[in-house]
Amino acid sequence: MSAPMLKVEHLSVAFGGVKAVSDVSFEVRPGEVFTLIGPNGAGKTTIFNAISLIVPATGRISYEGRDLAGLAPHQVAKLGIARTFQNIELFEHATVLQNLLIGRHVHRRTNLAAELLFLPSARREEHEFREAVEKVIDFLDLAHYRDQMVAGLPYGVRKVVELARALSTEPRLLLLDEPSSGLNVEETDDMAFWIHDIQNDLGITVLMVEHDMGLVSRVSTRVLALNQGETIAEGTPAEVQSHPAVVEAYLGTAEAT
Amino acid sequence: MRFIFKTAYEQDIRLFKHGGQQFWYGLLGVALLAAPWVLDDYFLGQLTFILIYGIVGLGLMLLSGYTGLISLGHAAFLAVGAYTQAILAAKGWPFPFSLTAAALLAAATGIVVGLPALRVKGIYLAIATMAFGFIVEEVLARWEHVTGGNTGIIVGQLQMFGWTADSEESFYYVALVVAALVTLGVLNLLRSPTGRAFVAIRDSEISARSMGIHLARYKTTSFALSAAITGIAGALYAHKLRIITPEQFTILQSIEYLMMIVVGGIGSVHGAFFGAAFLIVLPQIVAMVKDYLPPAIGQATGLQPTIFGLVLVAVILFEPYGIYGRWLKIRTFFQLFPLYRRGLFRRQKAFMKSERLR
Amino acid sequence: MQVLQVVISGISQGLIYGLIALGFVLIYKATETVNFAQGELMMLGAFLGLTAVTFGMPFWAALPLAFAGMWVIGILLERVVLRPILGQPAFTVVMVTIGVGFVARGVVTMIPGWGTDTHALAAPFKGELVRAGGLVVGMEHIVVIAATIALSTALYLFFRFTRVGVAMQAASQNQLAAYYMGIPVRRLNSLIWGISAGVAALAGVLLAPITFVHVNMGFIGLKAFPAAVIGGFGSLPGALVGGVIIGVVESLSGVYLPEGFKDIAAYILVLVVLVVKPTGIFGETASKKV
């Protein structure tokens, strides 16, 4: 067993007295696809937000041995953590290409003066950014949409664009918040292949929140089940799915999807 | 219809995307250079005003159009630039130096005004910048030994290193050079990470942050740059007007500038100059037609504001991307003729999510 | 005693700001947008009242007439200008209402009998003074204070206890969700613009005896913004408290600070509030859910 990439210890998040997440601990190991499942309101997205440092939390989150406490939200991306959002948060009034280029922001080396004058260093950087982004475009097969405005794209494509934008940052840990929500069967299939390729070909560790149990069992290395902010089971997809507490959580709340 | 076969990334990066653009912008450049031989002093003066307002528009566009931060106090930055220029020019500073000082001082003011922007946005920011505008206006009127109070300052002719812009033509060329340089700078910025970071902040702060964009730093940068550009315009404005008073830098002017970029086409560099042209040309048209209207309407002092207001409302309702949007449609119409169909540019309908929850 | 007199006149001036701010807050509460033409609506209401009185109508009859007239204008405005841009960002709404304000100010100058002159509106109580223990307050201020308190109480009860009022608040949080829940979002928006324009008319007519009626009287609306912000933009009591704070600070700085501070005191105050506590006194905080 290798050292954990992301280590979450005794994480708790409360919103005005309501505990959204209480005392959750888990480890994500390099190279695996680790999935959080649970009924709606189980606190899955809140855990993502805690890792992104956009909600205040207690407990300890460390990434590659480094405590995230004390960092600002924008510094998380620089460490090599990228994420997508449940409801898609793209830059609507920009093209797909521009969205992906914004994903390269963490790799910016030029300064304002060089940009205003567009010095050779700025031009060189633009070329580098473009090359990196084109690789992602090829990987996710987005060439057709490259110069289109995001605002006019269908839902399924936006979902892929958001994934592409996250990949453009060249992350080592990728947080995917419900990658299949709103997708049809075919698109979900594609998503499963891509997650698989991201793990195997790109060597990126994935932490995912997902409802679609088919997708979860296909791609996950390990699964953590949550209910009402608390851990109820952890293990392989098959183990967790048959765990009595998980069955009860889903049937009990009739939220299984 | 023009098909462009792309073979190199450079094609997307460079300013002129294809030979056609090079040709038309070249032609525009030649026309602007030749303008003094064609236009008389009055029209050349108006063209100079378009350039100056165009620079203001670029500054405001960067902030409101690209970063999505509303400013209802931009006249204040113009004032900082204009008064700095007036005072330093009187002390004999050559124009490039005083211009730099005007830009820097305006930028510093912009950073201060940007402070509320780090915490608030939308209408709150509009009100904060408006409040700031009122305060600057009052300072200009009260700080008499520096600003000359309500009587204002008389500004000399633009001079540098022994050369004086003593004619309409020479001042026009100075304005043209400054406008061209500012435009180039803005275009460069927009094809660089900083410009894209602005757009990211405008469209989704939460995901801009998750892409590693430091919101506070880029918002402040946007305010500083926007103010600096507006300050540069202010320096030219001072020389163009020859006498500056607080009345030229009120909330009404700030609103007019916002109107200018909305009518010109929000979120485009073209829009800044189209809007400036609108702001200068419309009063001339109003003056021409008002004698043909019924006296109650034609002679009313409110005629011009009414038309301004109507145009603004009409643009927002029917052509959200302003004159530039209309221009694109007309161009596409001719390029695609006879294949153009209505609805090609149809706008997406979206319901509002809560501002409070952003 | 002098200080007290200054404070009292500050409060009565502040309630005028509060009264105008009520109009902003109403629209903000229901639609989360801001009407930059609120001052102009007030001005139009004052002119309607003025015209009614000029035609021989008693003051107290002109008041509801102006209210009704502006109600109609408010509804028209919502239908023609605001409904098409439903759901667009705050910036769009700000600009469109600024445009409406320009048109309103311009059109008034074209209407015979209105024009650019300053008109006096005769009110039965004008010029009466109320004295209490050495303090003097004009009757027209007392009327404004009473009307403001009555109006805000009525509006508060409306939002708190009527189905329509509660539905309006729900709609403001997320118009799409409210729409799906079967709340007639558009009809509610229409209603709220009617009410808000009506409130503006009341403010205009009540203000007329104090400030006269003229085309630029709406600029006082720009002082009502700070009032609304300081109180917390979505809060009705906040609008009044914010208005009073601004009124008092203004009149105190008029007496105790160098010349010029009176005019900008409201703006300095609002900047401080925005930097220190952007949600104002009664505002609520929330962050976007992702």
Protein described:
- The complex is a heterotrimer of chains A (257), B (358) and C (290).
- Chain A is an alpha/beta fold.
- Chain A has ten helices and ten strands.
- In chain A, helix 3 runs parallel beside helix 6 (155-168) and helix 5 packs across helix 6.
- Chain B has 358 residues and is mostly helical.
- Chain B has a domain at 20-251.
- Chain B is 71% helix and 2% strand.
- In chain B, helix 3 (41-66) packs parallel to helix 8, helix 3 packs across helix 9 and helix 9 packs across helix 11 (215-241).
- The two termini of chain B are 41 Å apart.
- Chain C is mostly helical.
- Chain C has one domain: ABC transporter involved in vitamin B12 uptake, BtuC.
- Chain C is globular and about 60 Å long.
- Chains in contact: A-B, A-C, B-C.
- Chains B and C meet through helix 6, helix 12 and helix 15 of B and helix 4, helix 7, helix 9 and helix 11 of C.
Sheet bearing the most strands of chain A, described? Answer: 6 strands, mixed
Number of domains of chain A: 2
Shape field of chain A: globular
Fourth CATH level, the homologous superfamily of the largest domain in chain A:
P-loop containing nucleotide triphosphate hydrolases
Bin the strand percentage of chain C.
Answer: under 5%
Shape of chain C: globular
SSE order and pairing:
The complex is a heterotrimer of chains A (257), B (358) and C (290).
Chain A: E1 6-15, E2 18-28, E3 33-37, H1 44-51, E4 58-63, E5 66-67, H2 73-78, E6 81-83, H3 96-103, H4 112-117, H5 120-140, H6 155-168, E7 173-177, H7 185-200, E8 205-209, H8 213-219, E9 222-227, E10 230-235, H9 237-242, H10 244-253
Parallel strand pairs in A: 3-8, 3-9, 6-7, 7-8
Antiparallel strand pairs in A: 1-2, 1-4, 4-5, 9-10
Helix pairs in contact in A: 3-6, 5-6
Chain B: H1 10-13, H2 19-38, H3 41-66, H4 74-90, H5 95-117, H6 122-142, H7 144-147, E1 153-154, E2 159-160, E3 163-164, H8 168-190, H9 193-203, H10 205-210, H11 215-241, E4 243-244, H12 251-265, H13 269-289, H14 295-298, H15 303-318, H16 322-336
Antiparallel strand pairs in B: 1-4, 2-3
Helix pairs in contact in B: 3-8, 3-9, 3-11, 3-12, 3-13, 4-5, 4-6, 4-11, 5-11, 8-11, 9-11, 12-13, 12-16
Chain C: H1 2-31, H2 38-54, H3 59-82, H4 90-108, E1 129-132, E2 135-138, H5 139-161, H6 163-173, H7 175-180, H8 185-211, H9 221-231, H10 236-256, H11 261-276
Antiparallel strand pairs in C: 1-2
Helix pairs in contact in C: 1-5, 1-6, 1-8, 1-9, 1-10, 2-3, 2-4, 2-8, 3-8, 5-6, 5-8, 6-8, 9-10, 9-11, 10-11
